[in-house]
Amino acid sequence: MRPDFHIIIVGGGMVGACVAALAAANPQLAELRIAVLEANPPSPPAGDLDLRVSAVSRASQRILTAVGAWPLVSPQSLSPYEEMIVWDTAGKPRGAGALHFSANATSEPNLGHIVENRQLQWALYECAAFRRVTLLRAELAGMTLERDRAVVSLGDGRTLSATLVIGSDGAASLSRKLAGIETAGWDYDQRAFVTHVRTEHSHARTAWQRFLADGPIAFLPLADGRSSIVWTTRPAHAEHLVSCPPEEAASEIESAIDGALGKVEIAAKRVHFPLRLTHARQYCKERFALVGDAAHAIHPLAGQGVNLGFLDCAALVEVLAQEIAKGSDPAALAELRVLRRYERWRKSENLIALGLVDGLNRLFSTSDEMIGWIRRTGLGLVDGSALAKRFFMGRAMGTSGELPEIAR
Asked: How far is 250 from 78, CA to CA, in rounded Å?
């Protein structure tokens, strides 16, 4: 039987919209019928900057440019950063134990951009490629993976069939659960406290990150001169930072960043959310594949979450396009032999990122003096090694590893 769609993507956030746009824009896949299932599609961004921002890597920028979304992001919400400074709680931002990355040491104009999430999502929905995608405004209610098709039940009562379903519905993915895919992982005894602040001194287009005993605090530069704060700390402390008077929270933030940017003033609402590492034991089954947080949820300290998701999208679409280019029928796209090529590719790359970020968080989230000395010594050694710095900068910018062609 002819399916209603060749591909149904469950979840239309940034990653879901990206995989839809990439598939619609690919010459090998352009004739496929593609749908995105999203109950709450974005509306034009308006008002103050949202608290949810991402550090968009160079690889992600290339992917978004390829589908025509990057030029649609409002310039007022794009904040390129040319420097990154990382230091330990007992060190100083420009001291011997600090790590300094600079775009001047690369052939790139900057290290990346801090961008509002809703701007990215809206740009993807507005790009020309996405206009060839059917938007299904409903929630996922059920899913069965049959021998010759996948059947998706919608919250409004509709039932649709597809050759392939792509799960992009976040860390608590319902589609993953319905597909019977289990996850490994653990909760961190940490929460991320998030707000925007104004500072006495300019952020100087620099991303600042200091590792404290309870977790790192990051100042991410925003286009309007403010900084986005992501402070990983203990749950009780995160709750305190949200509920205490803003002046008290500002004073604690100023102290946590060691006064690097002078006086601090709270300039947005304050929220916190729990942190957990999650990794799917499988990325695919016959007729089903996972991308983004549905496959892997990572600690925010390196800002790699959405970047890993965009690379998933590009890799999956590249694998599917290669299969069609060989002369295969669209039905072959849902075969396990095809989807496992994507799984082998991205699971190995994501394991490196998850392990590296989790290891850094554990190494730095301790007050042990000996480990602290080892950390500072290690940061100093990395800062003095051009080879080591190129490795970490390549990972952060998404320019190293086994990259999809569109991200190179």
From this structure: 25
* Domain 5-80+118-185+276-366 annotated CATH 3.40.50.150: no
CA dihedral in degrees (364, 366, 370, 372; nearest 10)?
40
Taking the domains of the chain in order of start, what are their residue ranges? Answer: 5-80+118-185+276-366
Distance CA 8, CA 260 (A): 48
Spatial distance between the Cα atoms of 53 and 61, rounded to a whole number of angstroms: 15
Give yes or no for residue 368 having a pLDDT over 70. Answer: no
Output the 3-class SS for the chain.
Answer: CCCCEEEEEECCCHHHHHHHHHHHHCCCCCCCCEEEECCCCCCCCCCCCCCCEEEECHHHHHHHHHCCCHHHCCHHHEEEECEEEEEECCCCCCCCCCEEEEHHHCCCCCCEEEEEHHHHHHHHHHCHHHHHCEEECCCEEEEEECCCCEEEEECCCCEEEEEEEEECCCCCCHHHHHCCCCEEEEEEEEEEEEEEEEECCCCCCEEEEEEECCEEEEEEECCCCCEEEEEEECHHHHHHHHHCCHHHHHHHHHHHCCCCCCCEEECCCCEEEEEEEEEECCCEECCEEECHHHCEECCHHHCCHHHHHHHHHHHHHHHHHHHHHCCCCHHHHHCHHHHHHHHHHHHHHHHHHHHHHHHHHHHHCCCCHHHHHHHHHHHHHHHCCHHHHHHHHHHHHCCCCCCCHHHC
Count of residues in the chain: 408
Distance CA 333, CA 31 (A): 14
Across the range 192-213, mean pLDDT stands at: 95
Task: Name the range with the highest mean pLDDT among 227-231, 299-303, 350-354.
Answer: 227-231
Residues in a beta bridge with 145: 150
Q: Are 393 and 101 in contact, with CB atoms under 8 Å apart? A: yes
Residue entry with tokens 């800062």: 383
Place of tokens 């001194």: 201
pTM to 2 decimals?
A: 0.94
Angstrom distance (rounded) from CA 324 to CA 28: 6
Residue tagged 């095809």 (tokens): 338
Angle, CA of 290, 113 and 230, to the nearest 5°: 75
Per-residue model confidence as pLDDT tens digits over 257-314: 999 999 999 999 999 999 999 999 999 999 999 999 999 998 776 667 899 999 999 9
pLDDT digits (tens, 9 = 90+) for 152-170: 999 999 999 999 999 999 9
